[in-house]
Write a structure and sequence with these properties.
Blueprint (H helix, E strand, L loop, with lengths): L2 H10 L3 E4 L3 H12 L5 E4 L8 H4 L31 H14 L6 E2 L2 E9 L4 E8 L2 E7 L1 E4 L21 E4 L13 E5 L5 H11 L2 E5 L6 E2 L8 H9 L1 H24 L4 H15 L3 H6 L12 E2 L3 H5 L4 E4 L3 E4 L3 E4 L4 E3 L2 E4 L13 E3 L6 H7 L15 E3 L12 H21 L2 E6 L1 H16 L26 H9 L6 E5 L11
Parallel strand pairs: 1-2, 1-7, 2-3, 4-18, 7-19, 8-17, 9-10, 9-17, 10-13, 11-12
Antiparallel strand pairs: 4-5, 5-6, 14-15, 15-16, 20-21
Helix pairs in contact: 2-12, 6-7, 12-14
Bound molecules: NADP nicotinamide-adenine-dinucleotide phosphate.
């Protein structure tokens, strides 16, 4: 077979499988289309597009990153209804993008990835997809996981979860059939989801009991409806919208200085947040309960104008005594008090650190990716892992943020992955696999930076895994990640051509 023939085969027969239709899966599809690559299928386990913006339908669900930044750079939307957009509007935006860029037709709904196994001889992934209870195998040259870290609800480790006779559901699986008006409702958790839910529950519940383990740092949210005039100006002068987007971006980037350069700078933010709490919470006992005892930023800093007033409302109890167990009738705290309830909302977060465990990705040496990561927690740019050729992660390890828009990070990753795929196809490669030495050096550099970050300042957060290692956050400015991923350096990878004799050896 000549080199031209092998290149031809590589181009013509290069099926790609993408998992998930959140911001990352859709962006990946769009990027491939724009690169002239049509040979991809997106498998989505649900019946609709949207990822986290499809699943999180709880009352008050909205973004805490400004709308004009929390959107694709290539698809500006001049008419966002608010400065911080509500969930439904973001989901609609994603659907619009998928339609406009021709990606919707590539999606197979109701299709869940169960496992993907790499075969070194053929350079192919055999991907099992479950649809309507039946598993089917598909061959792919590349697998791209856009399933995200915030998709599997974390149920709390509390005794008696199954004993409760009332209604109970997780914030990301809201049961809209249950009318909570006039009911006795509990919310467990005071994280990013809870602080949006609590003000809505306070308005309708007869009694709301908030079970708080750790208070969050809360800052005011510059949220307001967009004026018709502003929307019209952005429509007619897109450059102004770009300027506005850039302004939000650079303001957010400033905060990274405290997160990753010198956490002592977070004192300035703490000063503002303390002042805000003092203004909003008049009762000193409640204020003390709501005052965090860790460095701001160590857990996600939250934005809300409605949270403190809700927590101080007459129908709300903030309970800081630990939970002993859940009973048939409610929640019993460690002081022996049983709080009788009609409904319990578990706003207890997601399985973030071992989110890959559900996907059985089996690489070159027959080992599962999760197993490999548990033994050797290394990756390259949060996108690839040695031993898993032509497989790419979106929103993978150490790419999460506490200060800016994930959509920016996703676009950087998608650009990088597209370059990888173009290189494999155009050069007639069977596969590329990051060199072990490159991966090791990269991980060491990232982990060293993380040691100095605010996430290492001593709190328990979902950024840290059970060994206290931060496999979630990106320890830098987002423009630094953009620089890291801007250009693919193929020499970072072992390159195996379709014709084995011409292999570039893995010297790493
Ligand atoms: P989270 O930030 O992990 O918060 C979970 C909450 O549940 C925490 O307050 C935690 O307390 C509490 N909790 C967990 N287990 C508990 C237990 N057994 N007993 C008592 N309390 C318990 O989860 P989340 O609020 O769903 O947010 C997750 C992430 O989603 C956020 O960090 C953010 O990245 C994203 N998010 C974003 C937005 C947005 O607007 N962009 C909105 C919602 C969520 P401890 O703090 O003590 O562990």
């Amino acid at each position: 077979m000549t080199a031209t023939q092998s290149r031809h085969i590589a181009r013509a027969d290069f099926p790609i499988i993408i998992i998930g239709t959140g911001f990352s899966g859709i962006a990946m599809g769009i990027a491939l289309k724009q690169a002239g690559i049509d040979s991809f299928t997106i498998y989505e386990k649900a019946d609709d597009i949207g990822g986290t913006w499809r699943d999180n339908t709880y009352p008050g669900a909205a973004c805490d990153v400004g709308s004009y930044l929390y959107s694709y750079s290539f698809e500006p939307k001049p008419d966002w209804t608010r400065t911080f957009s509500p969930q439904q509007e973001i989901q609609q935006y994603l659907k619009h993008c998928a339609d406009k860029y021709g990606v919707t037709g590539h999606i197979q709904f109701g299709s869940e990835l169960t496992d993907a196994v790499f075969d070194e001889a053929s350079g192919e992934w055999t991907v099992s997809i479950k649809k309507n209870g039946r598993k089917k195998k598909h061959q792919a040259r590349s697998v791209i996981l856009g399933n995200g870290a915030l998709s599997t609800p974390q149920l709390p480790d509390i005794t008696g979860l199954k004993d409760f006779k009332g209604h109970m559901f997780h914030s990301a699986r809201w049961n809209h059939d249950v009318d909570l008006a006039g009911k006795r409702v509990a919310v467990i958790g005071t994280g990013a989801s809870a602080i949006q839910i609590i003000p809505q529950m306070q308005k309708i519940a007869s009694r709301l009991k908030v079970f708080q383990r750790t208070p969050a740092w809360i800052m005011p949210k510059a949220d307001r409806p967009m004026r018709a005039l502003e929307q019209a100006v952005f429509k007619r002068a897109p450059q102004l919208q770009t300027l506005y987007r850039d302004a939000i971006y650079w303001r957010n980037e400033m905060y990274a200085t405290g997160f990753v350069v010198d956490p002592r700078l977070m004192k300035a933010g703490e000063f503002v947040a303390n002042l805000y709490r003092k203004q909003q919470v008049k009762d000193p006992i409640l204020r003390a309960k709501l005052t965090p005892a860790y460095t701001m930023g160590c857990k996600r800093t939250l934005l809300s104008n409605e949270y403190y007033p809700a927590m101080g409302a007459a129908n709300v109890d903030v309970i800081t005594t630990g939970i002993d167990r859940i009973t048939e009738r409610g929640i019993r705290t460690k002081d022996g008090v049983e709080h009788e309830l009609d409904a319990i909302v578990l706003a207890t977060g997601f399985m973030t650190t071992d989110y890959l465990s559900k996907l059985n990705l089996v690489g070159r040496d027959g080992r599962n990716q999760n197993e490999v990561l548990a033994e050797k927690p290394e990756h390259y740019k949060g996108i690839t892992v040695r031993g898993f050729p032509n497989a790419f992660l979106l929103m993978g390890p150490n790419t999460g943020l506490g200060h800016n828009s994930m959509v920016f990070m996703i676009e950087a990753q998608v650009r990088y992955v597209t370059q990888c795929i173009e290189a494999i196809r155009n050069r007639g490669l069977k596969f590329i696999d990051v060199r072990a030495s490159v991966q090791e050096a990269y991980t060491a550099r990232i982990q060293e930076k993380l040691q100095k970050s605010v996430w290492a300042s001593g709190c328990q957060s979902w950024y840290l895994d059970k060994n206290g290692r931060n496999m979630a956050a990106w320890p830098g400015y987002t423009w630094q990640y953009w620089l890291e991923t801007r250009r693919l350096s193929l020499s970072d990878f072992e390159q195996v051509p379709l014709k084995v004799s011409a292999a570039v050896p893995a010297t790493a």
